[in-house]
Structure formats: structure tokens, C-alpha cells
Design a protein that fits this description.
44% of the residues lie in helices and 18% in strands. It is an alpha+beta fold and 316 residues long. It is globular, with a radius of gyration of 23 Å. Strands 1, 3, 6, 8, 9 and 10 form a six-stranded antiparallel sheet that branches. A four-stranded antiparallel sheet has the order 2-7-4-5, with no helix packed on it. The chain is built from twelve helices and ten strands. The protein folds into two domains: 135 residues, Jelly Rolls (Sandwich), CATH 2.60.120; 112 residues, Homeodomain-like (Arc Repressor Mutant, subunit A, Orthogonal Bundle), CATH 1.10.10.
């Protein structure tokens, strides 16, 4: 930023000209604001489950989303299968279980907790907490339990919706104090700018017929080079992002239209309904018809999967 002295003649800003950097006194602030706008536009929060659970169940549990338990009363235990890490569930504490982590749980009859299952995606397939693979616990603010009670027991209303939005932001702020994010804001912004054209193509023009060579052509480099760079910058493969975007498109068509499974497969350019169903089940661990049926049972604050009153084990 250049501050003009009284002896200098201040040049006017001409849109598209390079002298904008020299004369605009708030350029640094505007640039920082632009970074935040990019993150805000791309950040996608999805709540899969929100309920007051009293499961009375023990066994192995696996979920596609991040899980957060706010224990109200009673005691239980959660053991991470691959590492053996064990946590005791106590009233007044919260337990965080990252997505795609299998745990062995013991929920006695007296255990009651608020259960949230959610995604916080920056890009298709890139969750804010996807690099974490360990369960942890922390003591949340006491008022969170009261807010959860009001939202869970309240009727569907604008006030209750925005009350939950405020609670969601507060919960994520607390979670970021104990869980390392997958990517920093600066790293994400730099990567997004670097692959802006490619990301736009995947979001708006990709189909089941899109090849890796097509994506490399959009980025104007070889696929091998693109694959290495993309994984280094975002910590995931380009194929994973493409599959996640196709899955999101399929979910949108399943839940917002009455198209048949065959018609959805055709619109996404799968060769046939069978291949589409195989793809969908591989990504989401359930068939398209089952996903649509479960969505119809969703509660007022759930945008995806909520089944019944109690949190139930995922059926492998």
C-alpha cells in the first residue's frame, strides 16, 4: 500500500488498470475480505443427524460424517478400533468422532446424549476435519446444552432455525480449539485460486463420462503432474473430488425431484441404472432408493439422513 504525500498528485483509480494497487488506501483490507468471501462461498455445512439419543446398544459403529456427542446424563464408552484409543462418556463433556472412523461403543440404558452427525466441506470430498483420524473429548460451554435442548424440543420456526445457526457456529469454534483443521484458510485460498478453472469445470460441467485427461486439459498440464500437485495442495486425489461432486449431484436429484433412478442415471451420463447404483452405493454406503426414502423421514433441522428417534448403528 502506497500513501501519497501532500507533494504528490494523487492518481485516480481506473478500473482494470494496474494503478489500483498504488492509490487505493484499503487495498490490503479488501484483499483479506476477498479471501474470506471465497471461503464463505465454498464452505458447505450439512447436518445429517440431530437428535436426543438414548440408544441402549453396544457394538461397532461406522459413519460417513463427523460425529459429536454432548452427554447429558449417564456414562458409556467409545473405543477407536484401529488405534485402541478409549474414551469414557461423562455428563457435561463432548466426544468428537471423525468421519470414516470405526468405533466400538457401549451405550448403557441410562446414557442420554445429543447426537450430531455433520459434514463441513470446503470442496466436494474435502471436509474441514477429514485429515483427523483420532477420537477426542472436551468440555463444551454449559450453555450449549441448554441451547441444544431448546432447539431439539422446539417447534419449526425461523427463530429456532437461526438459534441453531448461532449454536452451530459456536460449536465449530470450540471444536477448532481441540481438533486440527485439514487445511488452513491461507492454504485453501491459494489452492482455490490455483485450480479455480478446474474446480468450476468439475462443479458445472462434469458427468460420469468425464475423464482425468479432460480435467488435465482444463488445467493445461499432464494428468500425472496435475494429480501430484492436486494431492499435495488439498491432501486428496482429483478422482475423489470428481466422485464427491457426482454424488452431490445425485443426492440433489434424488431429494429435490421425482425423477426415476433410471432418469437420474441418464442425466448424469452413466451408461445404465445398474452402474449408477453401484457408484452411489460405493460412495454413500446405501442404494439410491434407500437414500431417497430415508431423506423423506428427515426432521426439520436435518438436510440428509435421520432415521427414527434414536441414533442407530450403521449397517455394513
Amino acid at each position: 500500500m502506497v500513501i501519497c504525500s501532500c507533494k504528490e498528485k494523487k492518481r485516480s483509480y481506473i478500473p482494470g488498470k494496474e494503478n489500483f494497487m498504488e492509490v487505493h488506501p484499503f487495498n490490503h483490507f479488501r484483499s483479506h475480505r476477498g479471501d474470506l468471501e471465497i471461503i464463505s462461498i465454498n464452505l458447505h455445512w450439512t447436518l445429517n443427524v440431530f437428535n436426543l439419543a438414548n440408544p441402549n446398544w453396544r457394538g461397532c459403529d461406522y459413519r460417513l460424517g463427523n460425529r459429536l456427542f454432548f452427554v447429558c446424563r449417564g456414562n458409556g464408552s467409545v473405543v477407536q478400533v484401529n488405534s485402541g484409543t478409549s474414551l469414557e462418556l461423562h455428563p457435561g463433556f463432548a466426544c468428537f468422532i471423525p468421519r470414516n472412523v470405526t468405533v466400538r461403543v457401549e451405550y448403557p440404558p441410562e446414557l442420554v446424549f445429543y447426537a450430531l452427525e455433520f459434514h463441513v466441506e470446503l470442496l466436494p470430498g474435502l471436509d474441514l476435519f477429514s485429515s483427523n483420524n483420532s477420537i477426542c473429548e472436551y468440555r463444551p460451554a454449559p450453555e450449549h446444552f441448554e441451547w441444544l435442548r431448546k432447539v431439539e424440543s422446539g417447534e419449526v420456526s425461523w427463530k429456532n432455525f437461526f438459534r441453531f445457526e448461532k449454536l452451530r457456529q459456536s460449536i465449530l469454534l470450540e471444536l477448532l480449539d481441540v481438533v486440527e483443521p485439514s487445511i488452513s484458510c491461507r492454504e485453501f485460498h491459494r489452492g482455490f485460486i490455483k485450480y479455480a478453472r478446474l474446480i468450476d469445470f468439475i462443479r458445472n460441467e462434469s458427468t460420469a463420462r468425464t475423464t482425468m485427461d479432460e480435467l488435465a486439459a482444463v488445467q493445461k498440464c499432464t494428468y500425472d503432474k496435475l494429480s501430484r500437485m492436486f494431492r499435495a495442495d488439498f491432501g486428496m486425489s482429483l478422482k475423489k473430488m470428481l466422485d464427491a461432486e457426482l454424488s452431490m449431484q445425485a443426492k440433489s436429484l434424488l431429494t429435490s425431484t421425482n425423477f426415476s433412478i433410471k432418469e437420474i442415471a441418464r442425466r448424469l451420463e452413466f451408461s445404465n441404472e445398474y452402474n449408477f447404483s453401484r457408484f452411489f452405493k460405493r460412495i454413500n454406503h446405501c442404494a439410491p432408493r434407500a437414500y431417497r426414502l430415508r431423506y423423506l423421514c428427515a426432521g426439520p433441522f436435518s438436510q440428509e439422513l435421520k432415521v427414527g428417534k434414536h441414533l442407530k448403528p450403521f449397517e455394513m
